[in-house]
Amino acid sequence: MPKNKTHSGAKKRFRLTGTGKVMREQAGGRHKLEVKSSKKMRSIAGDLQLEGPQAAKVKKLLGR
Fold first, then answer.
1. Partners of 15 in the beta sheet?
2. How, if at all, do strands 22-24 and 14-16 pair?
3. Taking the CB of residue 3, how many other CB atoms lie within 10 A of it?
4. pTM flag (> 0.85)
């Protein structure tokens, strides 16, 4: 049987922690930065955890 391949789009967008949680970056931190306040940028900087069916789907795409 051939090996399963990791979804190349998913590996760029998501990461797994050591305990198996799926983390993602928040939107809005890439461009038009001069318009956004420092407070807004600090809140965007933190990663968010995916939960439930979304996390299971991403884990499948990552081959876990």
1. 23
2. antiparallel
3. 6
4. no
What are the structure tokens assigned to 6, written together? Answer: 């990791």
Question: 17 is written with which tokens?
Answer: 């922690």
pLDDT in tens, 18-64: 999 999 999 999 999 999 999 999 999 999 999 999 999 999 999 98
Cα gap 48→50, rounded to integer Å:
7
Q: What angle do CA 4, 56, 43 make, to 5 degrees?
A: 115
Alpha-helix residue ranges (DSSP H) falling in 3-52: 8-13, 38-45
3 state DSSP class of 24? strand
The pairing of beta strand 48-50 with beta strand 14-16? unpaired
* Helical segments of 8-52, H only: 8-13, 38-45
Q: What integer pLDDT is reported at residue 54 of this predicted model? A: 96
